[in-house]
């Protein structure tokens, strides 16, 4: 019947029906969760929620990653959160977490102190720098991910509000999408003072034309100044192709960025790094806005609007509440720009 192998985002099947006829075909895909032992409770809650809204019907495996060994208690708590789910617990290899030899660690410390004094968000927190570098350049090299083509990044404490009764991975595969997001917003400029100029230098040195027809790159550029407009995709939610990051081009790009040491001397986030790389290497039509997925990370929430007709049995808070904000209406959303950009690139293709 029609709902096998489902990749149609418009579909909203009754849970009962999915349960009786679970999807038979799956993508080679997994949830990827970088997490600390002490975040056990929050990630357990997220898994219960994600299973309920989606994965109890689709049964994708979980890959947990940590720079320290997971405790037995943590592993048991995860299995309790979703009994029967396929779960792998991986240790991040030391070469992927820690200072590369070319980084001056005492200078990095001075930079952190300065960022702390300047109140750069997370700038003074050493582990955060390592995390951002890991998520930028290494997670996709973890051997536990070798057998997968796509991943869905999940973080402790995030919430899903709608039933997802189709398979987002199969959607990506079917339509040739390489990167999917739910929130697009402005980055904090003082975390990445020289990222953009480094990217432009890189593009020049590799003779990359950043203005090929269809290319995503100009979405990130302020046309009046040529500078970064600070828009990016929020990387705490990502459904994306692993091959995108495994590609020689992306590794070369990451190595170039990494060689500046500015994951440590500044506080380059994996979100702008992933986004701008997608800009360099992907076309706009390879990006998918998962507008139908109701989602919250920290205070920011996206829920499908009534007008869109998207979303399946969403249980979303509305407007601003004491613990969440409708980010699509927030001052720092890039969604209007994104919509315009997509319209323009679709018109250009015709
Ligand atoms: P935020 O979303 O930018 O506020 O940062 P988070 O604290 O949520 O960190 C982003 C992701 O990396 C989350 O999944 C965290 O669990 C994970 N993470 C952050 N720092 C570390 C760390 O030092 N070790 C491990 N294993 N995970 C970390
Ligand atoms: Mn987070």
TrEMBL record:
<keyword id="KW-0812">Transmembrane</keyword>
<dbReference type="GO" id="GO:0000032">
    <property type="term" value="P:cell wall mannoprotein biosynthetic process"/>
</dbReference>
<keyword id="KW-1133">Transmembrane helix</keyword>
<protein>
    <submittedName>
        <fullName>Nucleotide-diphospho-sugar transferase</fullName>
    </submittedName>
</protein>
<dbReference type="GO" id="GO:0006487">
    <property type="term" value="P:protein N-linked glycosylation"/>
</dbReference>
<dbReference type="GO" id="GO:0016020">
    <property type="term" value="C:membrane"/>
</dbReference>
<keyword id="KW-0472">Membrane</keyword>
<dbReference type="InterPro" id="IPR029044">
    <property type="entry name" value="Nucleotide-diphossugar_trans"/>
</dbReference>
<dbReference type="Pfam" id="PF01793">
    <property type="entry name" value="Glyco_transf_15"/>
</dbReference>
<dbReference type="InterPro" id="IPR002685">
    <property type="entry name" value="Glyco_trans_15"/>
</dbReference>
<dbReference type="GO" id="GO:0000026">
    <property type="term" value="F:alpha-1,2-mannosyltransferase activity"/>
</dbReference>
<keyword id="KW-0808">Transferase</keyword>
<feature type="active site" description="Nucleophile">
    <location>
        <position position="238"/>
    </location>
</feature>
<comment type="similarity">
    <text>Belongs to the glycosyltransferase 15 family.</text>
</comment>
<dbReference type="GO" id="GO:0005794">
    <property type="term" value="C:Golgi apparatus"/>
</dbReference>
């Amino acid at each position: 019947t029609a709902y096998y192998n489902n990749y149609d985002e418009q579909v909203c099947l009754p849970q009962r029906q999915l349960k009786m006829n679970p999807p038979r075909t799956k993508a080679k895909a997994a949830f990827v969760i970088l997490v600390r032992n002490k975040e056990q409770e929050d990630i357990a809650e997220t898994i219960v929620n994600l299973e309920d809204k989606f994965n109890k019907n689709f049964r994708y495996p979980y890959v947990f990653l940590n720079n320290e060994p997971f405790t037995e208690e943590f592993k048991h708590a995860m299995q309790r959160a979703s009994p029967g789910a396929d779960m792998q617990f991986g240790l991040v290899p030391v070469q992927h977490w820690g200072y590369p030899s070319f980084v001056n660690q005492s200078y990095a410390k001075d930079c952190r102190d300065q960022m702390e004094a300047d109140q750069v968000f997370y700038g003074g927190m050493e582990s955060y720098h390592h995390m951002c570098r890991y998520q930028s350049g290494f997670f996709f090299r973890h051997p536990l991910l070798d057998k997968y083509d796509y991943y869905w990044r999940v973080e402790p404490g995030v919430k899903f509000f709608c039933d997802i009764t189709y398979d987002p991975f199969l959607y990506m595969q079917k339509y040739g999408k390489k990167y999917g997001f739910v929130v697009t917003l402005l980055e904090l400029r003082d975390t990445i003072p020289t990222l953009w100029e480094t990217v432009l230098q890189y593009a020049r040195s590799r003779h990359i034309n950043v203005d090929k027809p269809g290319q995503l790159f100009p979405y990130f550029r302020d046309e009046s100044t040529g500078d970064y407009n600070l828009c990016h995709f929020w990387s705490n939610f990502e459904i994306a192709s692993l091959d995108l990051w495994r590609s020689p081009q992306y590794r070369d790009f990451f190595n170039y960025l990494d060689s500046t040491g500015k994951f440590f001397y500044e506080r380059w986030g994996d979100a702008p790094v992933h986004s701008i790389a997608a800009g360099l290497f992907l076309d706009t039509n390879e990006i998918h806005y998962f507008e139908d997925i109701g989602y919250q990370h920290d205070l920011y929430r996206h829920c499908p609007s009534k007008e869109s007709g998207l979303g399946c049995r969403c249980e979303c808070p509305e407007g601003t509440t004491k613990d969440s904000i409708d980010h699509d209406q927030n001052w720092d959303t890039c969604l209007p720009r994104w919509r315009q950009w997509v319209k323009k690139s679709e018109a250009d293709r015709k």
